[in-house]
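Lecture 7 notes: from sequence to structure.

We start with a single chain of 286 residues. Read the sequence below before looking at the structure.
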Amino acid sequence: MDTDLLKTFLEVSKTRHFGKAAENLFLTRSAVSFRVKQLETLLGVELFDRVRNNIHPTPAGERMLGHAEAVLMAWERAKQDVSLHQDNLLQLTLGTGHNIWDTYLQYFFQPLHQGLPGVSLRTEVITPQAMTRQLIERSIDIAISFDTPKLEEVDIVKLMDVSLCLVCHQAGMTLSNIDTINYIKVDWGTAFNIAHAQTFTMLPVPALHTSSARMALDFLLNNGGSAFLPYSFIEPYLASKQVFLVEQAATIERSVYGAFWTGNERREQIEKALKLLQAKGPVAPT
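Now the structure, written as C-alpha cells:
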C-alpha cells in the first residue's frame, strides 16, 4: 500500500477539510480527494461522510485511524532500523505520557545517551491507551507509565517512587479553605484518581484538567491555585517560595514503571536502559 494514501487520510481526519488538508500536504484539493477515494476503493468502505463544511470519519474511518497511525509508525521505524543497521547501530523507542516526560524522563536522557553507546533513542509522548496498543504491536520497546499494562509476556520493572504533594500559590492555605482558590487537576493515573476521590472531596471543580505537570505548574504560577505535583519537580519552587505546601494535606504515593515485551530482540539494551532509568528521587517532607 502507498503510505501517502494513509498520510492523506490522517490529514483529512485531523483537519476535517479537504482544502486545508491539501494546503498542509502541498497538494491540490483534487489530488487529496483522489487519494482518499483510492484508499476507500482498496478497503471497500467509505471513510468519510462528505457533507458540505462538515466532513467527518464514518465508523469505518474511525476504526481506520489507529491502524493508519500504526502502519505509518511501523514503516518509519523499519526505514530507521535499516539505515541504522548499516552503521551497526540499534534503536530503542520509549513511549511515555506527558506528565512522566515533564517530571522524570527528560532528566535521564543524557545518562541514557551516554550509557548506551551504539544505541539511537526515539521517544513517543502518547496516551496510556496508545502506549499499550503500541507495546502490543511492538512499535515501542519500553512503555513508561504509572499504571502497568495488564498483558501477558510483558516484563515490568519499577523505576522510582513519586510523592505527589498538594501545593498552592500562597502560604498558610489548609484543606479547610482550599476551595477558595483555583484547582488544577493533573492526571496521575488510575490509582491517583481513586485516592483523590476518596480523600480530597473538599477540592473544588477543576479550573484546568491536564495530563501535563509543566502546564499545570505554569497555570498555577500565572493564575494562582493548587495542584498535586511531584515533590522532586516543585522542590526548587518551594525553596524560592513561588509555591507552598498546603497544610494538613497528605501526599499521594505513586510509582513509575517500565514495561517491555519479554521476547524483544533488543532485550539486553532494554534492561541496560531500565537500570539507567532507576533512581531515587527526593523524599517528600512529612
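The chain has three domains: 3-70, 85-159+256-277, 161-254. Keep this in mind for problem set 3.
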